[in-house]
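step: validate -> pass
step: tokenize input -> pass
step: predict -> running
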Amino acid sequence: MADPKPFTRRPRIDGTESLTSLLESHGAALQALLYRVTLSEHAAEDLMQELFLRLRGSSAFDAADRPTAYARKTALRLAFDWRRAQRRRSKHEAASRASPENRPVAPDPLAQADNAEAWHQTLDALGELPENQRDVVALRYLQQLTFAEIGEQLGRSEGSARALCQRGLNRLRDRLQPHASESGGGR
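step: predict -> pass
step: emit ->
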């Protein structure tokens, strides 16, 4: 699902014209990316607002040659920072959730719960990758961009994007392998 025509910088009349144009043309794709990483509509909406505020006050965004790429990279950082904060928060709340009366009833079958847990583990592992690998893997598999589009967005060649993706996938497999053996391997 490639973005429409990549955003190119136009001369600005005021400080927000360029940002407003970017959000009009790519806002839906950025919000979809935030949702895919956070798995929460509310978090994606909040992060979209934070993204707007950060870009609005950023001299780096104003000077960026590829503002769409800058916005996408900033969105990924915000989303993975949010995931890390959620993970830290959940560790602190684990004691209160451990009591049976505080445990929510899962409406989904066990298999779906396993799939959801696997997805959370995958996103957590993705967030631990080096930034360049994380960005390429996220753009490839969460935004479904081609390697040529990823290279263009990140200022890399198509071959470089492909190689970073492969290294990132190998690291993800290595990180997730212990989780697969703990849960009894694949069913």
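step: describe -> Residues 144 and 179 are 26 Å apart (CA to CA).
step: cleanup -> pass
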